[in-house]
Amino acid sequence: MRDESTRPLGQPGRLAQGGEIARSRPLRGRFDGRAIEGFAGDTLASALLANGLRLVARSFKYHRPRGILTAGSEEPNALVELRAGSRREPNSKATVTEFYDGLEARSQNHWPSLRFDLLAANAWLSPMLGAGFYYKTFMWPPSFWERVYEPLIRRAAGLGRAAGASDPDAYEHANAFCDVLVIGSGPSGLAAALAAARAGARVIVCEEDFRLGGRLLADAREINGMPGELWTARAIEELRALPEVHLFPRTTVFGVYDGGTYGALERLCDHMPVPTPHEPRQRLWRIVAKHAVLAAGAIERPMVFAGNDRPGVMLASALRTYAKRFAVVCGRRVALFVNNDDGWRTAADLARCGIAVSAVIDSRREVAPHVSALADKARIFTGAAVIEANGGSALRSITVRSNAGTETISADALGISGGWNPNLHLACHQGARPVWDERIAAFVPGAPPPGMRVVGAANGSMSLGACLREGAQAGYDAAEQCGFHPKAASAAADDEPCAVDAFWHVDLSAKAFIDFQNDVTGADVALAEREGFRSVEHLKRYTTLGMATDQGKIGSMHGLATLATLMGRSIPHAGITTFRPPYTPVAIGAFAGPHRGKHFRPARLTPSHRWAQEQGTVFVETGAWLRAQYFPQNREDDWLTTVKREVLTVRSAVGFCDVSTLGKIEMHGPDAAAFLDRLYINTFSTLAIGRARYGVMLREDGFVLDDGTCSRLAPNRFFMTTTTANAERVFAHMQFCHQVLWPELDVQFVSATDQWAQFSVAGPRARDLLAKLVAPFDLSNAAFPYMAACELMVAGDIPGRLYRLSFSGELAYEIAVPARYGDALARLLMQAGEAFGIAPYGTEALGAMRIEKGHVGGQEIDGRTTARDLGFGRMMSGKKDFIGRVMAARPALLETDRRVFVGFKPVNAQDRISAGAHLVPPGVPASAAHDQGVITSVAFSPSLQHWIGLGLLARGRERLGARVTAADPVRERFVEVEICAPCFIDPEGARLHA
Amino acid sequence: MRIACPHCGARDMREFTYLGDATVARPDPSAPGALDRFTDYVYFRDNPAGAHREFWYHAFGCQAWLVVTRDTRTHDILSVESRAAK
């Protein structure tokens, strides 16, 4: 059997000549598997119409047959799934999808097929599916909502299907700066751009279409006596030649933000089957503009009557666009239903393309003779209305009611025009409220955001002459305010008639659609009003009017006007819903841009990272850092085995660990010591040169901020470290203290975290090992005791530093070299340490030894603990002021029943304690009422051969030797533990002073 | 939003971090009633609709602490001063 779907349709809707299409470049694509043809310059919509396909979609709720309504980004009906596989993009508007060779699109929201959709049965249920139906029906039994009703409704309603696979394409972010940003490239936008650019201003023109020109591409008009399209071409040519002008077609300005910042989406490769290699598919621009000219034009309104959603009923302006720009006829028997002069021009424009309009129905009683002359060959009905569009999946006829009675007129296309809404979306993003303009029966922009001028149709100035004048004036003013000397503009055109009479609906039936995309009808709005949803915002939420992907571009105005009419209020009194970015949907991928996967949060690598990788190290993310967690050796198959070995190696021989992630700050100045005294709770002005001291900082509210060490390298020179996690925060805090609180202190400091590679070398053989590296430096206890610090040469000629600090409790040093020597130092330590049985250790062993020694870490400094809670009460100097001193003396922070830092060991040595376990007295239920504290850190102590813990317990220090239960209901682990001092190993410190 | 850093020029707000009220001053810790004053200083804030002086830190720039006067209703930046410059 021959496959019908591959037979070309022959473009029966294409005119023999004309159009801004390249007939020399034929293209082929597929719609629902059927071959379709078009030309370069087509949209998917114009190609579908050219191929005679008018039924292109099913509606959201009732699955009504739908055709193409518009020719722009306001399209509510013609939504398709574009592309396939991981590039499938649901809800793509056919009207703005550029046709390309190999295009693949599918209609959505039907079963089993577009033409025969069983779900259209929903239309019969429409009395049950009206406004707010989900609040009224499907309510019983309540348990059915989640399991039965909601899944059913979700399957029946809705639009396209997401790809369900990772997006294979790249997206980019970019910034641009200009004097004048022109949004829209119709006559107003081009006039503005020309005026500003000729004066020398840096101009950016953004146009959402792939071709510049706006309505000049679609309407037959003259400027300066030449055809509009010729003037447009010349204007673009002139702009292109100016060095300070950038023209961005395929670029939608979607949001206006504070300070003259504009968000724009440039679609670089959406008009290709797959993006050009190494090109992003889309680029998200952040444009900062001194001035902006909003020339976004206007959006034509539909007419509301029964069957107004029938395929074949289209906006009158869309009929003109398809005819002139795309050389496509949307019907052979065309009628128009309008309430304004502009709609009549459709008849004249179509006549130029050889398409006769058979009837014009105008809701107004009187139409000026020079307007009605535009359709001199058509039957004219004034004071009349189309009361129904008849047909199935295509329009066959319209029923017209006039003074002469009711009459059915054969028609396969009906152009409707209910007037124009200025496209003021972007003018309102900063909160400005639109203002009602009776003259054009539409809202116009209120006070636009600072720096923005709204011109032309977007400003409610509907004639071409006014568009050119306003555009040029705005470009002139903007350039002049930027310091340029613009010249008066030259483009001129007639002010064509644009009269309009408000006309909101023929009827409010359940077939008269207001919001096409969400299937909201006149009946729904009337019902909402009857049920009391009379605020426009309530109406919107109750009926979902304006909540679809088109955000009410087509229907909202009618909905609001209808509500106002029903309530007997004026439209401005009823109000309008809020406009928010984005103007049209922006893909999440574009917002994410390059920040995906590893790029979402780049890892900071330690200087010894490559060396550690070679050792087969297991890494762990700690904040932004990737650190060595443990170094498994042969046949070690679980992490605990490795960590035990690493700890025991340090405790019995020597180990080393990269601690470069610590925040490091170099500080100079005669007042450095005084500054440190005010930062830390303890005193640093008394610190001897060549010595280090442990210090604790508080926040001003009296809670602990951070801890670390600080070494005095010279009288006015200090080097301090912070915890890894708090490095940036402490640095910013210090800057605040210096710049804001004590600018009189003569001190300077700079972060040196990335400048130094620093290794902890710990264990009884640490001195022997380091002696080989720093010879002839004297490492004896007398010359370089515990807490000594100095600058020295490492490995002969590398300027480094040595600190005798111990986190592990062993004889230990921290050795630092410039970061570029970090890798070499790691290798050197391994090599020189081999004779001493050295092993590298990671963060797990580091943490285990910290817990064995009872040092506080990030788990204990959790923002809720005070210095006293953590056992640093006596460190707090009483002889000076420091940040947090006053607030730390608040009565509540001095309470004796506060939770304080203690250690825990299991009564039964086999038991494992859980970090996070809550502490309750023995024998009482593990409930919040009995909660006395929490285990903050746990480790298996290889030295003690059982689990140990640190934690915070109410009155803990008074209860040493007593028992509590560490309750971990999540893991069902309830362990009796003995309260002990937090230091488990060498409490006298004999090892670290060795 | 853009903040004109006195050292770096007009920069996007992503370069800055916000701290809050810059109208409060750290009290004299040795004065009588210091605890009450510090409680005010640390915790109590006005929430004006309109011009507000507040601290911003140019974290991804010159690391200056700035006093920015911002209209909380419109995000208009009315003035920017550097504390370090004083």
Q: What number is the mean pLDDT of chain A?
A: 94
Number of strands of chain A: 50
The radius of gyration computed from the alpha-carbon positions of chain A, rounded to a whole number of angstroms, is 38 Å
| Count of separate DSSP helical elements of chain A | 23
Strand content of chain B: 35-45%
Structural class of chain A: alpha+beta
Main sheet record of chain A: 7 strands, mixed
Shape field of chain B: globular
* Structure class of chain B: mainly beta
* Biggest protein-protein contact in the assembly: A-B, 27 and 30 residues
Shape of chain A: elongated
Strand content of chain A: 25-35%
What key attributes describe this structure?
heterodimer, A: 994 residues, alpha+beta, seven-stranded mixed sheet, six-stranded mixed sheet, 23 helices, 28% strand, elongated, B: 86 residues, mainly beta, four-stranded antiparallel sheet, two-stranded antiparallel ribbon, 6 strands, globular
What are the SSEs and their pairings?
The complex is a heterodimer of chains A (994) and B (86).
Chain A lengths: L21 E10 L2 E7 L3 H7 L6 E2 L6 E2 L12 E4 L6 E5 L9 E5 L25 H4 L7 H13 L14 E13 L3 H12 L4 E4 L15 E2 L2 E2 H14 L3 E4 L2 E7 L3 E7 L14 E13 L3 E3 L12 E3 H9 L9 E5 L2 H12 L4 E6 L6 H4 L6 E4 L2 E7 L3 E8 L2 E6 L2 E5 L2 E3 L12 E3 L4 E3 L7 E3 L9 H18 L31 E3 L4 E2 H9 L5 H8 L12 H12 L3 H4 L13 H5 L11 E2 L3 H6 L3 E5 L2 E6 L8 H14 L2 E4 L4 E6 L3 H8 L11 E8 L5 E11 L2 E6 L4 H15 L6 E4 L4 E7 L3 H9 L14 E6 L3 E6 L8 E7 L3 H12 L5 E2 L2 H11 L31 H4 L2 H4 L4 E8 L11 E3 L12 E9 L4 E9 L8 E6 L4 E8 L14
Parallel strand pairs in A: 1-7, 8-9, 8-15, 9-12, 15-28, 17-24, 18-19, 18-24, 19-20, 31-33, 34-44
Antiparallel strand pairs in A: 1-2, 3-4, 5-6, 5-7, 10-11, 13-14, 14-15, 16-25, 21-22, 22-23, 26-27, 29-30, 32-33, 34-40, 35-38, 35-39, 36-37, 37-38, 40-43, 41-42, 42-43, 45-48, 45-50, 46-47, 46-49, 47-48, 49-50
Chain B lengths: L1 E4 L3 E4 L4 E5 L12 H10 L7 E7 L7 E7 L5 E6 L4
Antiparallel strand pairs in B: 1-2, 3-4, 4-5, 5-6
